[in-house]
Amino acid sequence: MRIKFLDKLRGLGRCTSGNAVVLVALGLPMLIGGAGLGTDVAQWFMWKRELQYAVDQAAIAGAWAKSSSKTSVQLTYRARALQEYNANLNLVGDFDDAAGPTIALAYYRTAPPTADSVEVTATATKSLPFSNMLTNRVTTITAHAQATWQASADFHACMFALNRSAKSAFKMGNSINGSSTCGAGTLSNNTQSAMTETGDSTVPLGSLVARGAVDQTFKNNGDLFGNQPNISDPYDGLSAPSAAGQPVRTYPATCPVITPASTTYKSDGLTWTHFTYKYYKGANSSNWTLQGSYAGAGYIANYWSPTPQANYSAGVWTPVANGNYTNGIAFAGRSAIASTTVGLQAESVPANGTAVSISGSGSNKYWRLPSTSTRDKITAVSSTTTPASDGIVHLQPGVYSAMTFACQTELTPGVYFVSGDLDLGANVSVTSTGGVMFVMTGSAGAIKVNGNSNVTLTGITATTLINNYGYSSAEAAKIAGMLIWDPLSTSAFTLNGNSTLHLSGIMYMPHRAATFDGTSSASGSCIMVAADTIKIEGNFSLNNFCVTTGGSAMSIGGSSADVQLIA
Questions:
Q1: What is the torsion angle, in degrees rounded to the nearest 10, for the CA atoms of residue 130, residue 135, residue 139 and residue 140?
Q2: 501 closest CA partner among 543, 552, 455, 538
Q3: What is the pLDDT of residues 195-232, one digit of tens each?
Q4: Residue 468 to residue 398: CA distance in whole angstroms
Q5: Is 0.70 surpassed by the pTM of this model?
């Protein structure tokens, strides 16, 4: 029996007519299962792609809303994200996901509490026949997206370094104090450190903007905006006032002294002389006697020279040099006449001359004693009043070869063109009665702020630029507030020592390296600086690097809004 059974099996093995049916029967469950699983996986991928696209668009829409400068739009970022999410659902829109997407702010470049990105997370849940049969569970698809934003910005600065490539073009640190929240920046595109902080101070600076890299330690000082390509020199292309036709002036060699006001009288007039004679008889003047009448030898009658007409009201009178006396009038060197009235003046007291023997001898000797007097007629009187001097040098706008303030000085509003050094002096007060501007016209002139300098100056006004220097309203508005315009000089500028500046205005020195250190301070007003490089160190105080009342910080450019999908 056993042999017959084996023979049957061998016979079946040699028979091929039924093998295909058996193989198909055995593989059919695997074929059906593979097809079902493939269909489910394709569904999962389709759901995932749609859901991912929806959350991507939602995150981007929410980030664009946050990048807007309009607060109302920023506050509706959730609504905008949800709107885009719903608009991009088709297949998974009716799945069992009642909670909807989760939309929240997150931190990408920044730290709390300032978020800079929008996160959207969503799920889609649904049962598929084959996978559910195998697992007895529903399928849940999850999608996540994160988009960061950078809002559009207009950048301003009170301290701006104009060098386009230097490392540490703007540098600050050590023991500086105070605050300057109107911003700092540089045109330097240095990728290592265009703006460098030595140490890790917390002095407020507002926004820090550079074409290159900004040290991350500055995050304790304000908002960082590195790698900004659209910032520029705000005064590039503008023209300084021209010195052509301006008066040439000099600073006085000696300081004025305080003097009271005085009046100087100047008169035109005529004068004549009255010659009179007395006759005496006697041996000498000790025993002679006055003769009532004498007509003998040596007699001379009284006369006027030149001869006037009756009552001295007219005549051929001799002109005399104009007098120039204070509080009175005199002619021909005589002492002053205490009158300034035009007309005939009283005759002067006669002055005796020397007695002359004219005849006789002994006790019968006759003497002639001459005497003279004068009388004046004033034909015109004028007076000049010299005002009191306050001991201050009052300067006027114009062209100066150099300016060294050695005296107490007050400047009249306008433009002062200086081809040499501008020395703000030491131990003297320098002030302006209104807006002024110093235009450095040479390439080697130094600007000196010495120890103990006490300077109070205000930048020029738009009105002065329009009325006196031919600027249009638009041009004047861009230059208004300029205190120092120095387009050529390359020598360093340093403010240190014990100097005290009370300044309101802009110092534009595009080729100078500017250093602020020591115990100096820009106090009492607001100063802004644009220089080739800027270094602030020592114990320098930043308190009044600020915006003047009614003015604005230097406008240095801006950036457009930007959104990036990062996850």
A1: -170
A2: 455
A3: 999 877 888 999 999 999 999 999 889 989 899 999 99
A4: 12
A5: no
Residue 566's Cα: distance from chain center in Å?
A: 41
**Is residue 147 a contact partner of residue 566, using CB atoms and an 8 Å limit?**
yes
CA distance 468 to 561: 42
Please name which of 377, 267, 271 lies closest in space to residue 319, comparing C-alpha atoms: 271
| DSSP structural state of residue 336 | P
Environment class of residue 557 by beta-carbon count within 10 Å: exposed (0-12), middle (13-18) or buried (19+)? buried
| Beta strands per DSSP E along 55-101 | none
Element (H, E) at 324: strand 323-326
Helix, strand, coil distribution of the chain in percent, nearest 5:
20, 40, 45
Which H helix or E strand runs over 182? Answer: none
User: If you search the block for the tokens 């607060």, which residue do you land on?
Assistant: 71
d(CA 447, CA 459): 16
Q: How many CB atoms lie within 10 A of CB 122?
A: 23
Separation CA 273–CA 436 (nearest Å): 61
54-65 confidence digits (pLDDT tens): 999 999 999 988
Residue 93, CB-side half-sphere exposure with 13 Å CA sphere: 9
What value does the mean pLDDT take over residues 235-254? 93
> Kind of pairing, strands 447-448 and 414-418?
unpaired
Query: Which tens digits make up the pLDDT trace of 272-321?
Result: 788 899 999 999 999 999 998 898 999 998 887 766 544 343 333 444 44
